[in-house]
Design brief:
With about 260 residues, this protein is an all-alpha fold. It folds into 2 domains: about 110 residues, no CATH class; about 110 residues, no CATH class. Helix content is about 45%, strand content about 0%. The protein is built from 11 helices and 2 strands. Strands 1-2 form a two-stranded antiparallel ribbon. α4 packs antiparallel against α5, α5 packs across α6 and α9 crosses α10. It binds zinc ion (ZN).
Length: about 260
């Protein structure tokens, strides 16, 4: 099986997976299906903090670049996880009147289904809802993955150029439309949405009042929405074309790649 055939088989098996159902051997062979387990909230927090301490930012950025240029969501996901972990507070399970943690929104215990985590990694390529198991696992997987960074970055350069040229009143849904139409981008609707949300987590698409997770920890379960009907995650939900791309965040992540920064 070639690498692309194996990737297609993995994607297909992840899509077909149903909780409690059979697990395709292709996932087991690829190490993507350890047994599901329950872990306590406090152990999950320590798992995340350990993965953050061991994370290699330059490696995760290289993986992200490869993931964009080669249209591979699973290589992009750790950048969202690293941004999400940046200011994540060490804390015990904290409840008053609710069932989930007041600080991070996780439950105790937490059900960790690795196949489900991998489905999100391969099909979305970003952390959803600030889930702490996703953050920890995506970072852990990045550390175990070799990066083959591309020699040139035409696709990411053209994505950033497209964002710079959007009108001031452009909303995330307009960006989504433009992104999916862009030549060379092969993202499903779900992947493209997740990609835009990842840029929010990383502080690239943010607003002065609503910074990304790179700047400030935000409990995604309690974060504000721009409107009742919005289904975009925080903070990209508040982003409009007028805010452009945050240059500090761009330099933080891509300072080694001047071709990606505004000329
Ligand atoms: Zn918590």
């Amino acid at each position: 099986m070639t690498q692309s055939e194996q990737l297609a088989a993995i994607r297909q098996a992840l899509k077909a997976y149903r909780k409690g159902g059979p697990i395709d051997p292709v996932l087991k062979d690829a190490g993507l299906a350890p047994d599901a387990r329950d872990i306590s909230h406090d152990d999950a927090v320590q798992w995340l903090l350990k993965a953050r301490a061991e994370a290699d930012k330059a490696h995760i950025v290289r993986m992200f670049l490869e993931g964009v240029e080669n249209n591979r969501a699973e290589l992009r996901a750790a950048l969202s996880a690293l941004a999400s972990a940046t200011h994540f507070p060490d804390h015990p399970f904290t409840v008053t009147n609710q069932y989930n943690c007041q600080v991070c929104s996780a439950f105790d215990p937490l059900e960790v289904d690795f196949v489900k985590l991998n489905r999100i990694r391969y099909q979305c390529g970003s952390v959803l809802s600030g889930d702490i198991a996703q953050i920890a696992y995506f970072l852990q997987q990045a550390a175990a993955t070799e990066a083959s960074p591309p020699a040139t970055l035409p696709l990411l350069s053209s994505i950033f150029q497209m964002i710079r040229e959007l009108p001031d009143n452009a909303r995330p849904k307009d960006l989504l439309k433009s992104l999916r139409k862009l030549k060379g981008v092969k993202m499903t609707d779900e992947e493209a949405r997740s990609f835009i949300e990842l840029l929010g987590h990383c502080g690239i698409l943010q607003t002065p009042e609503h910074p990304g997770l790179l700047q400030r920890f935000t409990n995604q379960g309690l974060s504000p929405s721009s409107s009742r009907s919005s289904d975009w995650s925080y903070p990209v939900d508040f982003w409009r074309g007028e805010y452009g791309m945050n240059s500090k965040a761009m330099t933080y992540w891509f300072g080694e790649y001047p071709e990606l920064l505004a000329q």
